[in-house]
């Protein structure tokens, strides 16, 4: 993703900031945090709390709770030193400022192409030079179709992609699929898997260079918590 990359580190006398995604990953992540001995302030899991930054039982670690895509933005800019996000977000964000040392094995799903059951297999769009694609992953979609010599005309949506084909907004969608029930409920069928997705622990590369002991200790703490659950 093209963006000016500014790094905003507080000096190294301040603690680390861990960016976590609100929503479904956070629920799956909770046992890992507990096993890693990270206990955020009690209102962290309170959906009604308006607080966004939370101290933890470790005076050298604060947690911030942000939208899943924004975890990558906070970590890439160094506003957070470490974070957790889906591989889908990393593929879309596509920056060398983020290092992803640990696959947490949670948030398992795939990024796929889907189309209407009614049209699937009738006209082969694979021979077309352009195709309209509804997605919240414009970069992934463009790259995927470009590799097949097809120009993706992206309709950028933030949700409810499944409505797009039946309402004439696009021919196909690129979205996350886990059980397939959302596709099925909306008359769609998965036609190609672009990538398998799990959540990753991510690290800002500059922080890894400037604060190697702290960051390595943090990654090791997470790795140990994962091994305990294996
Ligand atoms: N059905 C699913 N099964 C498993 N993992 C999923 C599924 N949907 C999303 N994920 C993973 O969880 C991450 C966050 O998805 P989630 O649906 O919680 O947020 P979102 O709807 O993308 O966020 P926002 O509120 O910003 O729109 C995704 O980036 C992906 O890695
Ligand atoms: O294959 P399934 O098991 O049906 O899961 C896939 C659905 O999960 C995600 O949506 P989510 O539930 O996160 O809602 P969202 O539209 O708010 O992202 C994704 O965008 C799909 O719509």
Q: Could you characterize the architecture of this molecule?
A:
The protein has two domains: 16-107 and 198-229, Periplasmic binding protein-like II (D-Maltodextrin-Binding Protein, domain 2), CATH 3.40.190; 109-197, Periplasmic binding protein-like II (D-Maltodextrin-Binding Protein, domain 2). The protein is elongated and about 60 Å long. It contains seven helices and eleven strands. Helix 4 (138-146) links the parallel strand 7 (130-135) and strand 8 (151-156). Helix 1 crosses helix 7 (212-229). The chain has helices spanning 24-35, 68-76, 87-93, 138-146, 181-185, 205-210, 212-229, and strands at residues 16-21, 53-55, 61-66, 82-86, 98-103, 109-116, 130-135, 151-156, 172-177, 188-197, 199-204. The two termini are 35 Å apart. The chain has 230 residues and is of the alpha/beta class. The strands form two sheets. A six-stranded mixed sheet has the order 2-3-1-4-11-5, with helices on both faces. Strands 8-7-9-6-10 form a five-stranded mixed sheet. 29% of the residues lie in helices and 30% in strands. Bound molecules: adenosine-5'-triphosphate and 1-O-pyrophosphono-5-O-phosphono-alpha-D-ribofuranose (PRP). Residues 24, 159, 175-182 line the site of 1-O-pyrophosphono-5-O-phosphono-alpha-D-ribofuranose.
What would CATH call the class of the largest domain?
Alpha Beta
Strand content: 25-35%
Write the H/E string, N to C: EHEEHEHEEEHEEHEEHH
Q: Structural class of the secondary elements?
A: alpha/beta
CATH architecture of the largest domain: 3-Layer(aba) Sandwich
Shape: elongated
- Write down the Rg: 20 Å
What is the strand tally?
11
Q: Going across the biggest sheet, name each strand in turn.
A: 2-3-1-4-11-5
Helix content, binned percent: 25-40%
Taking pLDDT < 50 over at least 5 consecutive residues as the criterion, the unreliable ranges are none
What ligands are attached or bound here?
adenosine-5'-triphosphate, 1-O-pyrophosphono-5-O-phosphono-alpha-D-ribofuranose
Q: Tell me the number of structural domains.
A: 2
- Here the CATH topology of the largest domain equals D-Maltodextrin-Binding Protein, domain 2
């Amino acid at each position: 993703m093209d963006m000016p990359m500014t790094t905003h580190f507080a000096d190294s006398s301040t603690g680390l900031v861990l960016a976590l995604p609100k929503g479904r990953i956070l629920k799956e992540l909770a046992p890992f945090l507990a096993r890693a001995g990270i206990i955020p302030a009690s209102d962290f899991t309170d959906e009604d709390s308006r607080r966004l930054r939370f101290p933890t039982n470790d005076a050298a670690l604060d947690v911030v709770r942000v939208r899943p895509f924004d975890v990558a933005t906070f970590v890439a800019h160094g506003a957070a030193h470490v974070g957790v996000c889906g591989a889908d977000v990393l593929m879309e964000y596509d920056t060398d400022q983020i290092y992803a040392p640990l696959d947490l094995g949670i948030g398992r799903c795939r990024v796929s192409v889907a189309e209407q059951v009614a049209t699937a297999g009738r006209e082969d769009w694979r021979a077309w030079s352009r195709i309209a694609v509804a997605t919240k992953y414009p970069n992934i979609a463009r790259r995927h179709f470009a590799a097949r010599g097809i120009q993706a005309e992206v309709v950028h949506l933030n949700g409810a992609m499944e409505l797009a084909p039946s309402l004439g907004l696009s021919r196909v969608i690129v979205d996350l699929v886990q059980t397939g029930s959302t596709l099925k409920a909306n008359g769609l069928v998965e036609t190609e898997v672009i990538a398998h997705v799990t959540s990753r622990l991510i690290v800002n590369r500059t922080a890894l260079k400037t604060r190697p002991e702290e960051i390595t200790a943090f990654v090791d703490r997470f790795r140990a918590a994962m091994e305990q659950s294996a």
